[in-house]
Amino acid sequence: MKCPPAFALPLLVASGLMSFGEATGLGQEAGGQAASPSPLDKAEVRIPYSELKKLWDEAHAAKTPVPPEPLPEGLLLAALFRADLSSGKVGVEAEFKVESFAGKWERIPLMGAGLTVASVDPPDTRLTVVEDNLLFVAPQTGPATIKVKFAETPLPGAGGAPFLRLITLPSAVGSLELRGLPEGRAVLMGDGSAASGQVQEGVMKLSLPARGGPVTLSLTDAALLPKEEAPPPPPPPLTPSEWALQNEVLVYEGEGELCYRALINASALNGSAVEAVLLLPPNARSVKVTGDDLVDSRPARTANGLTELRLKWKTRDIMERQLTVSYALQQMPMAAEWALRAPSLEKEDQVKSLFMFVLSPGVEFAGVGLQGPIPAHKLPRWVIAETKAPEFGTVTAASAVTLQSRVLPRLETAVGVITRSDYVTKLVGDGAVLTTGTVEIEHDEALRWSVALPEKSNLLKCSVDGAPVKPIVRENGVVEVPLPYTGTSSKTVKSQVAFSYTETKEKLHAVEGQTSLELPLTPLFIQEVLWSVEIPDTYQISGVGEGIEHAAPATDGGSGNNAHTVRLVRKLCRNERPQAQLFYQKSGLLQ
């Protein structure tokens, strides 16, 4: 049996192909020693296939050689060109820095072929041309420097033809030096732009792009190049300004606050007129600032509660500025004073303010220098665009003024007026009385009409504008009839109330007598009360007591034109109960 290599014995044992004893014996034979019996000769070791494959791969990997990494190709590290025009011809030299890594012959590209090579240093340097490129044949590993001198070419005339054409290849360092440029001549690039580079001691040095590419240079008259304008001188440093303010301040009441809108004309007395700091009243809120050329406005609270408004403009040296500032200050309703506050400066004597405030009906103001009422058209035009108020008060001050305000008492007007009141009372012989009334009431808001019926009377019916209602009962026979309002705030409406009630009087005497009649009492003003009283046909009215007048007979053919009917009238009364002492007698007694 051929003995396997020693390194394979563990694999054979692990795979189960060979027992441990057999492997041991073979190992001894391989070493030249006799095998000795062992109790483990017939022992077996079993492992998973994945572990076996791992051991197998490791064993073979140790025998597989690793190929060496390929060496990089030779590189062009730097390409330095020099052109000399001092002799009237163009002489070009180039210096190339290269490095080879292969340790064998290889070709390293240097530049595009085109110029004629005159000499090379070192002399044994091998140059060749392949596919329009000039190449260096490197014989060994390591860096090398090659210097190439090209044949001179005539310098073109004034026609603007190129005097130098190069094709550079990619290299980390690339430059071109130009010497001996003709006086009054400038160098142009291939795209027609002027060459820009450092010029020291008559030598212009141009940087070449690292990615390489064509380089074309020509000469032109320097006077034909556009002259570069000198940069403008830097502006002088900013200096702080001192300001003066003239304020036009509109003030009107809001909900629990006074609203301000100030048109500010700021004049810079010195400095750069770029920054300013205005002082707003303490606890100013809802601050807004607008203005031309304004780039920044920042309100900031000071330690003493004032609000600093820091302004910054874009353009300097504009000495007259105009801006609009709006803000609000807390104001309790019905306050006895109005403390008006305008934007200010640290120097109070440099601030002048015209306060314009809306005059509210029923509020009276007092203060030093107060003027008004002033119509809106006499104030600045911008005020009319802000509010439609017709009248204003004005006062001038520096930045603060306090006015006293007083709410004037108002006279209460009638909530309703009875424009017409018609009553018909019918009296029968047993003393029963039925009164029917129709009342027209003018009112400009919803109203509860209060009416007190005669004593011991009973309401039968009641309606408002033809719709039945149930009046509210109050004390002492007073009832309230609700009258709805269906108009607008500027319109007066009329409501018609119709009602009837009964009462009991003394029985009429057989021959003659008198009785007292009365109408309901209402606190509303009544323009006219028309009252028609009827008694039975068997009686006739002989007279009416004082305090009420006879009305003209009815013209519509109705009642009031016979002996047992009388028409009465009571005009312009308020909170009165119309009454009548009625005298009657049996009909036919005087015949």
CATH T-level topology of the largest domain: Immunoglobulin-like
CATH superfamily of the largest domain: tricorn interacting facor f3 domain
Distance between the termini: 183 Å
* General shape: elongated
Beta-strand percentage?
A: over 45%
Q: What's the helical proportion of residues?
A: under 10%
Structural class: mainly beta
* pLDDT averaged over residues: 85
Radius of gyration: 61 Å
Topology, number of strands: 41
Low-confidence stretches: 1-9, 11-17, 23-32
Structure description:
This protein has 591 residues and is mainly β. The protein has four domains: 6-61, no CATH class; 75-222, Immunoglobulin-like, CATH 2.60.40; 243-407, tricorn interacting facor f3 domain (Immunoglobulin-like, Sandwich); 416-586, tricorn interacting facor f3 domain (Immunoglobulin-like, Sandwich), CATH 2.60.40.1730. Strand 12 and strand 13 (203-207) form a beta hairpin. The radius of gyration is 61 Å and the shape is elongated. It starts with 8 loop residues before the first helix and ends in a 5-residue tail after the last strand.
Ordered list of secondary-structure elements with their pairings:
Blueprint: H1 9-15, H2 20-30, H3 49-61, E1 75-84, E2 89-100, E3 106-112, E4 117-121, E5 127-130, E6 133-138, E7 142-150, E8 153-154, E9 162-168, E10 173-179, E11 185-188, E12 198-200, E13 203-207, E14 213-221, E15 243-253, E16 257-268, E17 275-280, E18 285-291, E19 294-301, E20 307-313, E21 320-330, E22 337-341, E23 351-358, E24 363-366, E25 371-375, H4 381-386, E26 391-397, E27 400-407, E28 416-427, E29 432-443, E30 447-452, E31 458-464, E32 467-468, E33 472-473, E34 478-483, E35 493-504, E36 512-518, E37 525-534, E38 539-544, E39 549-550, E40 565-574, E41 579-586
Parallel strand pairs: 1-10, 15-23, 28-37
Antiparallel strand pairs: 1-2, 2-7, 2-8, 3-6, 4-7, 5-6, 9-14, 10-13, 11-14, 12-13, 15-16, 16-21, 17-20, 18-21, 19-20, 22-27, 23-26, 24-27, 25-26, 28-29, 29-35, 30-34, 31-32, 31-35, 33-34, 36-41, 37-40, 38-41, 39-40
